[in-house]
Specification:
The complex is a heterodimer.
Chain A (H helix, E strand, L loop, with lengths): L5 E14 L5 E15 L4 E5 L6 H8 L7 E6 L2 E2 L5 H8 L2 E4 L13 H11 L6 H14 L16 H14 L4 E5 L7 H18 L2 E6 L2 H7 L2 E6 L2 E7 H6 L4 H8 L50 E4 L2 E3 L15
Parallel strand pairs in A: 3-8, 3-9, 6-7, 7-8
Antiparallel strand pairs in A: 1-2, 1-4, 4-5, 9-10, 10-12, 11-12
Helix pairs in contact in A: 3-4, 3-5, 4-5, 5-6
Chain B lengths: L1 H5 L6 H4 L18 H8 L1 H18 L36 H36 L1 H15 L3 H10 L5 H27 L3 H8 L4 H37 L11 H9 L7 H27 L9
The chains are: A alpha/beta, B mainly alpha.
């Protein structure tokens, strides 16, 4: 197998919870607790899970917006998590980000031209001012913004248009991977479809890889190649889109998929409703994090942490149900 | 018009609908009144504030040309005269012309107000930026600021004045020290919220260095609230200066300031209220003008409001 574009190995990020009078830490939030995955060039991996499960933290850790607690982040086999800020800076060009909120993701005091020029200048991608202007004009065209956008302020645009500016800024660095952190969640349905299609077009044209962080399974099914399901800081199931959506294995994935709205009121539904809330990531339950809400939990789940391992080729699950060849008593 | 522009550049409406005539814009441009009249019409409070402040500035700068006498010249024969054509605001217990003293007193108030606003903002900005950006210093700096803030600014200024001799420079220094904690707290709060903004994260991802992030993304968005705060500090510094002078801990008695004019009139205020009345009116008007200006600036410095000013 060729070398993946991005590889994340056993990533952990713990946030100190509260600081005392002079800055000492008390308690730790286990936001991401041992996550591993990889993304090939031109591939889309969707990271799904409910709020607070750590999906955004994974994205921000890859961007190195903070130092990770442990683990490794590699771009084309090169570790980037232990580089100094200065060493990392030129490599930052390869991974860019599009955020959820189209309003707070653009500096209100910068014109569109300056917003787009920032990464181009930082990475030295334009030799002259004329080339810079040309690149900015191209970016505005590629994300289908009005031709006169460059001289305008962010507040003159609608939410969907601002998200296009955010995408143009990410593209300005000519990246290999774009992390879309809930990039379409804040948009209304028609605009959402436009942005999703734009992202897919760009992926095809430019060979971009996408890490698509989302809780919207309908959109994920539409645009991703592979899916990783997260629960409380860990990946519980990962595989190709077809496998995850057609034959989910992990009880949590099943519950998550059964919660997707079906646009047919007559359709027979066999919903798995989870009881209770997500446990606190400050004191995650021992063993399998999901055992407190799992409909098929066993005694072993409370003690032993299941490992993510291949169930079928490329389709891995972290669940004790699938450890033994066949247990039989549990219906799938 | 916008429909044409939002299509891919290769296909414009003109290619498809060559026969379509050019239609006039639906939204006809609204005629905006320009010039001074338009400004007064759109921002009456700012205009009023600027107007009063401009008068005070002119009075202060050109005090000798406004029919003033020597504000320190004693004339025991003419003491405590009521307002008249000769002495517009009357004379005080030493026969000094209150009008001249009030006009010259504007100099002290304006200098103290502007100087304190400038120095407190500049130093507070620096402390706030360091505190908001260098986490290691944050708690220590902020605990020190909390300590300073726990003392009322007037008491702190009185205490600082007690350590040194009375002069306008020392008054400025004392009030500046008393105002710094509020500015640095404000700046720190703004910086802490700004550095969590997604556009700052995007700039980090785009390879912008920390000094450039502060310059490009943090500072410009800090200046608007800071400028507004500076105007309020200016007003409050004028009041504190007057209080210090009133209790005799501020501007030395040789230099007329609104505070010590009022102090001179204090003993006589029940029988000769005009001595205390005129400086008080000037002080109130000036502080009001500065605050009106601050409110206007808050709106004007918001880029979303930029069109309106």
């Amino acid at each position: 197998m060729t070398q993946p574009l991005l590889e994340v190995r056993n990533l952990k990020k713990h946030f100190p919870l509260r600081t005392t009078f002079f800055g000492g830490a008390q308690g730790v939030v286990h936001a991401v607790d041992g996550v591993s995955f990889s993304i090939a060039k031109g591939e889309t991996l969707a990271l799904v899970g409910e709020s607070g499960c750590g999906k955004s933290t994974v994205g921000r850790a890859i961007l190195r917006l903070f130092d990770i607690t442990s683990g490794e982040v590699l771009i084309e086999g090169r570790r980037i998590d232990d580089l100094t800020a200065g060493q990392l800076r030129p490599l930052r060009r390869r991974v860019q980000v599009v955020f959820q909120d189209p309003f707070s993701s653009l500096n209100p005091r910068m014109r569109v031209r300056d917003i787009l020029a920032e990464p181009i200048r930082n990475f030295g991608l334009a030799a002259s001012d004329a080339e810079l202007d040309k690149k900015i004009a191209d970016l505005i065209e590629i994300v289908r913004l009005p031709g006169d956008s460059a001289g305008r302020w962010p507040h003159e645009f609608s939410g969907g248009q601002r998200q296009r500016i955010g995408i143009a800024r990410a593209l300005a660095a000519a990246p290999d991977l774009i992390i879309c952190d809930e990039a379409v969640s804040a948009l209304d349905v028609s605009v959402k479809a436009q942005i999703v299609n734009l992202l897919q077009d760009l992926q095809r044209q430019l060979g971009l890889a996408l890490l698509f962080i989302s809780h919207d399974l309908a959109i994920v099914e539409h645009m991703t190649h592979r899916v990783a399901v997260m629960y409380l800081g860990r990946i519980v199931e990962m595989g190709p889109k077809q496998a995850i959506f057609a034959t989910p294995r992990h009880p949590y994935t099943k519950a998550l998929l059964s919660a997707v709205p079906v646009p047919d009121p007559e359709a027979p539904r066999n919903r798995t409703i989870l009881k209770g809330d997500v446990p606190s990531p400050i004191n995650p339950p021992p063993g399998c994090h999901f055992h407190t809400r799992c409909p098929v939990a066993m005694a072993r789940c409370r003690i032993e942490t299941p490992v993510l391992r291949d169930h079928e080729p490329d389709h891995s699950v972290a669940c004790h149900l699938y450890d033994a060849p066949t247990v039989g008593s549990v219906d799938g | 018009m916008t429909i044409t522009a939002s299509l891919p550049a290769a296909i414009t409406a003109r290619d498809h609908y060559a026969a379509a005539p050019d239609l006039p814009d639906i939204h006809l441009p609204v005629r905006v009144r320009g010039g001074v009249a338009g400004f007064v019409f759109r921002q009456p409070t700012v205009a009023l504030g600027l107007f009063i402040l401009a008068i005070m500035l002119v009075l202060a700068v050109f005090a000798p040309w406004f029919g003033t006498l020597d504000p320190t010249a004693l004339a025991p024969a003419k003491r405590t005269r009521p307002p008249s054509m000769d002495f517009w605001f009357g004379t005080d217990a030493f026969g000094r012309d209150v009008y001249s003293r009030v006009i010259y007193g504007a100099r002290v108030s304006l200098v103290v107000g502007f100087a304190v606003a400038f120095f407190a903002s500049a130093i507070g900005l620096l402390i706030g930026l360091v505190s908001g950006y260098v986490r290691a210093f944050d708690s220590t700096i902020m605990r020190a600021m909390d300590g300073l803030m726990s003392i009322p600014p007037i008491l702190l200024a009185v205490a600082l004045m007690a350590l040194t001799r009375a002069s306008v420079q020392n008054v400025i220094l004392a009030i500046t020290i008393a105002e710094i904690p509020r500015v640095s707290r404000l700046v720190r709060g703004v910086v802490l919220s700004l550095r969590e903004q997604p556009y700052v994260d995007a700039a980090i991802a785009a390879g912008t260095t920390t000094p450039m992030i502060i310059k490009r993304h943090i500072l410009p968005n800090t200046l608007a609230p800071l400028t507004v705060q500076a105007t309020y500090i200016c007003g409050s510094a004028m009041i504190v200066e007057s209080i210090l002078s009133f209790i005799g801990a501020g501007t030395p008695p040789m230099i007329p300031s609104w505070g010590n004019i009022m102090a001179d009139g204090r003993a006589l205020w029940q029988v000769k209220p005009y001595i205390i009345f005129f400086p008080a009116v000037f002080l109130s008007l000036t502080v009001l003008a500065v605050n009106l200006l601050g409110d206007g600036l808050r709106d004007a410095l918001d880029p979303r409001m930029a069109k309106r000013l």
